[in-house]
Each structure stands twice: as structure tokens, then as C-alpha cells.
Amino acid sequence: MDEQYGADDADGGDGPEGRDGPAEQGFTGSPIDLDQLSYLEQRRAIEAVLMVAEAPVELSMLAQLLELPPARVEALCAELAAGYGRDHRGFVLARVAGGYRFQSHPDMAAYIQRFVLEGHSARLSGAALETMAIVAYKQPVSRAQVASIRGVGSDGVLRTLCQRGYLAEVGRDPGPGQAVLYGTTPLLLERLGLDRIEDLPSLGDFVPGPEVMDALEQGLRPPA
Fold first, then answer.
1. What 3-state DSSP class applies to 44?
2. For residues 9 and 16, what is the distance between their CA atoms, to the nearest angstrom?
3. Which parts of the chain are beta strand (E)?
4. Quick one: CA dihedral 175, 183, 60, 200, positive or negative?
5. Which of 24, 25, 89, 127 sits at 20 to 30 Å (Cα–Cα) from 104?
6. pLDDT tens digit string along 151-199?
7. Which residues pair with 182 in a beta bridge?
8. 141 Cβ neighbours under 8 A, 6+ residues apart
9. Contact, 190 vs 181, CB < 8 A?
């Protein structure tokens, strides 16, 4: 076997931990000396972990894996993100849902959309997107409250969104009947590319200005 565990193996080639020992015996210990990680190795370790992670990795977990202070890991992630930006890479290192992950660059949206449309991913319906938006902005919210805002029953849509992991039951209303209350999940934050639900754009950003409202009103008036 090659000397895949570092320079320390070379000094003990004739002993039980020599070149053929660990590989033949199914070596289970960590071959990494975490106390001696170089600056480059720290950056590479973060990249490797995030590359195989299925969900955003929390800062505390990265700090634990590298045995570094969280502030140091946060600075390393910021350096990596800045470097990818300078190199105009097709991906970014983003902080979403309370952790870090790699995701495609926003500028590449057209290619990602083409890739998704050619696949077999089921898209959410307009009713599902509408319901999800209501819950995101009004949470915690009951089924009856969602239906009141939409003007139509939303039982099936809420059930589908819960099954997909975007919404979840977060409690019960203390009032009569103790209705189930719904809220968003970390998976939805991950899909939206947000770190916190508070990062959602303000609803005021979607309200038409006075000029638009006047124009609409004028257009709806019957001719004199």
C-alpha cells in the first residue's frame, strides 16, 4: 500500500503500524492530525465535507470536525465564498437554514431551469405556492386561517406540503378546539436559499404604489 496516512508512517514502516499494517487490518482510527491542520488543509476539509453533505452543515459541526473555534471556521468559509466569487465559479458557498452548503450561482438559473425541466421533478402547483407563502408570512397559522385568506379549503394542499417536508405542525392554538398550527421547516429555507425565515422579502415590496393603484382605479371605472 502507498503511504496514504502521511509522513508519520514512514518512520514506523517496520512496526505494526507500518505501510501494510493499517490497510491489511482495516484501520479504524483517524489518520488526520487535527492539531496540525494547515491553512490550506482547513479550507480543503471544509470543501470536502460540504461536497458530500446532503443538507446545510451547521457552523458548530464544522468547528467540531476541524477542532477549530467557530469564529475561525466562519472566517474560512467567508474566504472560500469570496474566492469563488472572484473566480466567477458556477457555484457559491452560501449560508442557508442555519448552515453552509454549495449551491448553483444565481446567474446560472437558466441552465438549472433547463436541467430541471428536462428531468422528472414534480413542480408545486399555484395553490401550493400560494399556501406556502401564507404560512411563511403568517406562521404559526391554522388550517382555517389559511382557508380564510385563500377563500377556499386548503386541507389537501397543506397535507401535500407537509408530506414534502416544506411545512410542519408546530403547535396548537390555545383557543377553543385547539386547532393545529403550521409553520415552515428548515428544508423550505434550504430550497429558498435563506438562512432565516426573517430573510424573506417584506410584503410591502409587492404592494403596488399609489400611481399604479390610481391607474387601476381609473381603468375599472365605467365610461362616462
1. helix
2. 10
3. 57-58, 91-96, 99-104, 141-142, 167-172, 180-184
4. negative
5. 127
6. 888 888 999 999 889 999 999 988 888 899 999 999 999 888 888 888 8
7. 141, 169
8. 134, 135, 181, 182, 183
9. no
